[in-house]
Amino acid sequence: MKQTNNHILWQTSWKYTESIIVTSTIIIAGFVLQITVGSINFSLLAAPVNLLLGGVIILLCIASLWYRNSSLMRWFTGVPMSVCLIAALLSLSLLMGLTPQLVNSAKDAVGLFARLGFNSMAVSWTFVLIYVTILLSLGCLIARKMCRFRVKEWAFYMNHAGLWLTLFAAGLGHVDMERYIILVYEGKTEWRVNSANGNMKELPIAIHLNDFDMEEYPPSLTVIDSASGMPLPDTSPDYYQIDTETPESILNGWSITLKQYIHQAIRNSDSTYSVASMPGAAPAAKIKAVHPENGTEVSGWISCGNRAQPYMMLPLNEQQTVVMTMPKPKRFMSDIEVYTPDGTVRKSILEVNKPLKVGSWTIYQYGYDNNAGRLSAYSSMELVYDPWAIAVYAGFILMTLGAVAMIWNGRLIKRVTKKGECK
Amino acid sequence: MTWNNFIYFALPAVALWLAAGITVYGIKTHRHASLFTNILMLAGIAMFALFITGFWINIERPPMRTMGETRLWYSFFLSATGYLAYCRWKYTWLLSFTALIASVFVLINLLKPEIHSKNLMPALQSIWFVPHVTSYILSYAMLGAATVGSFIGLRKTRPYSNIFCFLDNMVYAGFGFLILGMLMGAVWAKEAWGHYWSWDPKETWAFVTALAYLAYIHIRQSGAKYEKTALWILPVAFILLMITWVGVNYLPSAQESIHAY
């Protein structure tokens, strides 16, 4: 394309000015639709409507090939338009990043920002229109480039086709995705969940919880104000996480020595503790505290306790007490059996980061009774149905290859000579 | 090795880096300055790597969870990237600038270490943890170097071609790592939380940052007329990057973020 210094708007070849005007128009149209029509009802787009929509987008991209040498298509798939669309998506995402987003789509749109869809940006008309325009522009570009395919440009295809596929599948697949939290008690079987509208829903999967278990990190010790219960010093409290290899620490001026630590302990009748690997066991420690100035020495057992045993504190003087914090979870897991209508039974130990795939469903460890911790009587799991995920992952693979090429080659056409110039 | 030992590794490393940043200006006039610079810089990087290794072994988990720990990697990667880019393109200013910025991050860690315990919550116990964070921090280091380059470019008058040679390569490589970090994060999120993208505030800001660099890459295809615009995009994009990295935790929109540790 020739550079023209006296560029006339809407004539000759379209460039940045036209792209900015068109992109702005789409954004304004989106805001107008959001205010007049309201939020998009995504449930209307569920399969097969989204498949149809996807088909139309693909057909439009292919149909554009007949006009691929027209100045209009060259502009629509060209650099200025792409920069403007990127800028538009950036601006909308920036608004999303600055405005607290609603968990569910805007139901009570109060105030101008909410009515413009700022607090549910990813599902607003404006965002969706820009998203679809990007799919079309990028899709037409890929189709056009495919017509004169050059192996040398493989990284370009990987990056662009990968991004297109990811946006396409993630966007259209969004409406088909189903997510439920299921609560299963130990020894019980469950297949019913609460759906988004609050009704009970029966799933094609039943889960039986054999056992819920948890491993915990050693807890921390801290000195608290006996009256207020607040950890000391006020400004930045001292904590010492129990570690038998470093048994010395200083908490609010007291030097604390860890004499003995039992991770799973049971309290004896004489207020000492002994080892016991059983569900009701809690961490306990025998410590010695010395005040460096007046030499006061206090020692004894402390424990954070749990639902089965009371906690134990060690008073240092009339104002201060050493306590043990509740331990933080290291890993928690559910021993489950999964039943499907076709009669298959799957056994698994579910853990965070270790989901179980059953057909089109994936089961994730979600949570437990936080107040009971290790003694939780139930385990909550998340069930996710996401049939489009495979296409999104295909897009990820293409983008990964494209990214590796970018790292490896840099901007390929540029090479440095010995004099430090670009070639 | 713990944070208590950090100062004994950090101060010598900073001294070595800054010394290299100074001796590098003597390579045209002094015969041995180049060799001297290389030794100083490599010694500084090795010193720092030694601490990270020891620290990692001591805390029994990857040191990548807290802000202080990611700053540790940033100093390391920035000095290493600056040194490699210096070897490749012979930009003396780049070596001294990256040495200086790496030192600033070391000083922040010395003054405000944000030390945390050994605990690693279950969601973070994944094979994706190390590559995800490393890829991002490496990318941040490269894009940081590109930002320094853009300031040099903005002070110059046309033609900018020399500086763009460095900027484009740096942004391409940095963007590549940015995308790898994002994709690994997405795969990890799918395994941990059931979805690869949730528009969590940290994700949204990471997306915004990636788009800003994507805009740079595309506007660079528009020819000489938009070179000045391209140069201005880099500092702006880096501000977005810094918000993603450290600023998100302070935004009212991010109080529910799953990325706040």
SSE order and pairing:
The complex is a heterodimer of chains A (423) and B (261).
Chain A: H1 16-36, H2 49-63, H3 71-76, H4 79-98, H5 112-115, H6 125-147, H7 154-173, E1 178-185, E2 189-194, E3 200-216, E4 220-225, E5 240-241, E6 248-251, E7 254-267, E8 273-275, E9 282-290, E10 297-303, E11 314-315, E12 320-324, E13 329-339, E14 345-351, E15 356-358, E16 361-368, E17 378-385, H8 389-409
Antiparallel strand pairs in A: 1-17, 2-3, 3-13, 4-5, 4-12, 6-7, 7-8, 7-9, 9-10, 11-12, 13-14, 15-16, 16-17
Chain B: H1 3-23, H2 33-59, H3 67-89, H4 92-111, H5 129-155, H6 161-193, H7 201-219, H8 227-247
Helix pairs in contact in B: 1-2, 1-4, 2-3, 3-4, 3-5, 5-6, 5-8, 6-7, 7-8
Structure commentary:
The complex is a heterodimer of chains A (423) and B (261). Chain A has 8 helices and 17 strands. Chain A is of the alpha+beta class and 423 residues long. Chain A folds into 3 domains: 16-148, no CATH class; 178-215 and 330-385, no CATH class; 218-327, no CATH class. In chain A, the strands form 4 sheets. In chain A, strands 6, 7, 8, 9 and 10 form a 5-stranded antiparallel beta sheet that branches. Chain A has a 4-stranded antiparallel beta sheet with strand order 1-17-16-15, with no helix packed on it. In chain A, helix 2 packs across helix 6 (125-147) and helix 7 runs antiparallel to helix 8 (389-409). Chain B has helices at 3-23, 33-59, 67-89, 92-111, 129-155, 161-193, 201-219, 227-247. Chain B starts with a helix and ends in a 14-residue tail after the last helix. Chain B is flat. Chain B has 8 helices and no strands. Chain B folds into 2 domains: 1-117; 121-261, Four Helix Bundle (Hemerythrin (Met), subunit A). The chains are: A alpha+beta (423), B mainly alpha (261). At the A-B interface, helix 4, strand 13 and helix 8 of A face helix 6 and helix 7 of B.
